[in-house]
Design a protein that fits this description.
The protein is α/β, with parallel strands linked by helices. The protein has three domains: 131 residues, no CATH class; 63 residues, no CATH class; 131 residues, Ribonuclease H-like superfamily/Ribonuclease H (Nucleotidyltransferase, domain 5, 2-Layer Sandwich), CATH 3.30.420.10. It is built from eleven helices and nine strands. The strands form three sheets. The chain has a five-stranded mixed beta sheet. A hairpin with a 2-residue loop joins strand 3 and strand 4.
Length: 359
Amino acid sequence: MFRQINVHPNDWKFQRILWTDHQSSTSEPAIYDLTTVTYGTKPAPYLARRVLKQLLSDEGHKFPLAIEPFEKGSYVDDITGGADTLSRLNEIASQVKALCLTGCFPVAKWKSSHPSFCKVNSSNLSSNTSHQFDESTCHTSQTSAITKRIILSETASLFDSVGLISPVIVRAKILMQDLWLEKIGWDDPLTPQITHRWKTFRSELIDLASLKIPRWLNLTSDPSHVEIHEFSDASQTTMAAAVYIHPNQQSKVTLVYAKTRVAPLKRLTIPRFELSAALLLAKLISRTAKGSQLDQRTSYFVDRFISHPCWINSDPTRYKEFVKNRVRDIHEISLSAVWKFISIKQNPADCASRGLNPS
């Protein structure tokens, strides 16, 4: 991508390199000026994104269906988008491809959840390999010596970008914090109890292969007045937040995001930890609203009265720094939201704050 973008001749000198050929008879290095955007330079990502933005400004009016993927779905050299029908998706893809070509950016490596899509956009650079996600399996290493380093490495490899399996992943986070509390070295032998906990957790991960979570949000072509319901909870060790979308006049409710965070090593009181969970929850709404671009009504649910009416619905200046700062941030983020109470038994965030095994 970078090499498709020319640098102004006046700036070539800032990308000057010296090249020494050890097999050459001359000792003087050759001088070269790099004339295109160069990977590894500090402004390279900005310049690439700025050029795409300018390309959209100059040529976007000719390709209206490509505007949304460019504006909302581009990340460095990737462009993402979608549609409700295959024909519409193909139209969008064709316009994205045409818009990119006007700037000499040939797109490649098409990927889609629909098996017929790649056939329409087939080329020698496209990937026509079909991936059946329902046939995926969970793989875990069988390292004989389990150490703190191994546990951290394998925990980090549990990729769950939107938190759909947060109740499971949080168990690994809790275990990692227990290792910190015991001040165990990176390669020190672990206690039999911790070793057993980790082996049990790792062996259970295979059960995730049978877990199915629908990712379609069930939104119509006119996704107005969609309700977003958010829940938070905190236990002694973990706080959790979960976001659900509910299209009006439909019975389907879909999990969109979830997030967990372990308690700080310096323990907080439960009310303060609940307040921190409420702030974590409030921050998720900005991510949800930005990602879904919906005209939504939002309801926040917490399951403890102490952080709901006494703090969140009050003037933050009444309290000391810890409470004041978090209540103020909650007010700024969730200005129009309605905070409500929900019992622990009905709170779906409860399982993520306490942890579940995959089964």
